[in-house]
Amino acid sequence: MVNNAGVQPLWRVRGGLGPLGATIEAEIPYHPGLLAELLKAEIVDPLTLLFQKVMHITDFVGAPIADRGTGSGEELSVLRLRKRLKTAKVTKKPVPLRVTGIFSTAVLLSYGWWERTGPGAKPVGRNDIQRWAYAGFEEWAPSWDFNSAAAAEDESFFLGQLGHGDEADSLLVVAVGERARAIRPGITSLMGERKVAALSVEVNGLLCHRSHLSKHNPGLAVVAQRWHRDFNYCLLLDSDNHRITPVYEVPDFYSAYLWKCLWAKNNLPKDASPTLNDCYLIWEHTDLTKPDAIEFNLDSLEHKQEFLTRRYGTMELLQKSGPLITGTPSLSYAAFVRLFGAVGRM
Hints:
By secondary structure, this protein is of the alpha+beta class.
């Protein structure tokens, strides 16, 4: 719903809040379906819900987005954006956008089988457990959070993905330079406080096609050459106006893998290096927005590792899906990429 001037209309809301009955008045952006959302909600104070629905908690970088009609681009959901990109022509230059969705500090190792333009990698392993665990892991689109650690190997980039429903339905998000160093601490600390690995956010940045990067950001263009062939678009954050802003909305769910890459080396020479055929990729699919679901699946993951230890000997942790899983991986980012090259290229 837009008026003749092309400006999003505002609702003027007035009401009382709190035990003292203080009066508050505000202008709030209207969107289709907002009233229906309020009427369906089971909440005593609909005005409080209204503010929770449309106002931001905080802005990690810079001032809150105040003027939504100047310079910050069109606003749309990541679901709608992904649908557009399937048929859209590549623009001449990057497009400023504000995109809402669920943000996770991880990057897809590969797209799921339903997104592929060709067959996936063949299962690897020396026994049926290894082959099954690898096949399911690779075909159903796992992600890897390799940049949330306090001692990230390259602080000039902060990578994540903005999705809807499942990690496979995501768009790559790349913050570079000062934006990366400014955004990383706020996002990772908030996820740590909430014991989750995904948040509802608004991302303000540039929609870039792979072909835009050689002119717009040559340094990132070099890195992008290693990205999976299906990562043709990203949301790039590289100016003071770009930010990732959490919003007052609890997602229905955001399903993703919790995983460990383990190595049973008891019967191998001391100087042996792991190969993919030697590894056990154990995983659980969970909802990264709900602490109880995460705890439930982390427990299942530990039982799987205990089973493997009883049968094949002590397991060494080579890498893991992210900070929700305890333990220090023995392989660096670069070493794991080399080991895991059969699945995807970062």
